[in-house]
Design a protein that fits this description.
Helices cover 46% and strands 8% of the residues. The chain is built from 10 helices and 6 strands.
Length: 312
Amino acid sequence: MLARIQQLIVLALVALTLGAPGLAVLYDAPAFWLIPIVIVGGYATVLAIEFWLLQRSYGPGDLERPTLNQLAGAWAAEVAGSPRVFLWRQPFRSGAEPDHMPAANARSPRGVLFVHGFLCNRGLWNPWMRRLRAAGVPFVAVNLEPVFGSIDSYSAIVDAAVRRLEHATDAPPLIVAHSMGGLAVRAWLAEAPRSERFHRVLTIATPHAGTRIAHRGFGANMAQMRSGGDWLARLLANEPATLGARFVCFWSHCDNIVFPTRNATLPGADNRHLIGAPHVQMVYHPAVFDEVVRLLDLSARSAETATRRRSP
C-alpha cells in the first residue's frame, strides 16, 4: 500500500516538474517555471525545520550538542540521500530484493530479520539485502501495515517472519530495526517470554523513549511514539530489566526525527553514538553494517570457507 502511495506522489512531482515549461508557455505565466524550485526548496526547508527543532532540544551547556557545521552536514546528507529512499527504493524497488532462504538441506548461517520504520517499507533495506545475499546470509524483510495502525498490531508480522527464519536456519535470528521498527520488535517481545527466539536486536534511531516530533504527527503509531506517553511507559513496565543487555542501539546527536536524541538509547544496552549522522542515513552507516557482520560472525565464517576451499 505505501509503495503505491509513494508512486503516486513521485509521478505527481515528475508531472509537475516536466509540465512546468508547458504551463508557463500556455498561460504566459513565468511563475510556473518556479514549480521545480518550489518542490526542491520545500523539501529542503522541511528538513531544515526538523534540524532546527533538533537543535532547540539541546540545552546550551550540553556537551553532546552538535555544532552548526555538524548540523549543516547532516542536513545536506539527508537532502541528498533521502530521495533515493522515498522516491525510488520504496515506491518502485520494494520487491527488487526478495527474501533469501537457504536451499533445502543446505548448511545455513543465522538469519537476519529487517524491520523498517514509520512511512517506510522493505525497500529501505535493499543495499543491505544485496550484501547479505552475496554473503549467503538468509534474511526476511517485512512490510509493517497498516501504515498508520497501532504498533501492537505489527507483532503478528514480526512473529511470522521470525518463525520463517527459525524454520529455515534452526537458529534464532538477528533482528535489525530502524526507527519505529525497534518499537514494533519490543512490542512483540512484550507479548510473551521470547528471550530464546532472537539472537540480538540491533536498533537504528529508534525512539525508545519517544520523540517530540511525534506530537506533531497523526496516526495511532505516531501517537504511541510521543515522548512521555502512556504506551511507551506500559511497554517499559512490561519488560524485564535485563532486556537491554540483548540490544545494540545506534543513535546520533544529529538525528532530525528522534529528539531528544538520547531517547534512541536503552538502559543497559550497548548504545553506540554515530557522530553527525541524520535519521535515514544512519541506516547505511558503515559502523552499523560492521556490527551486523560481527554479531553474525561473518568474518570467521568467511575465513573458514576460504580454508575449506584451499584444502585438497
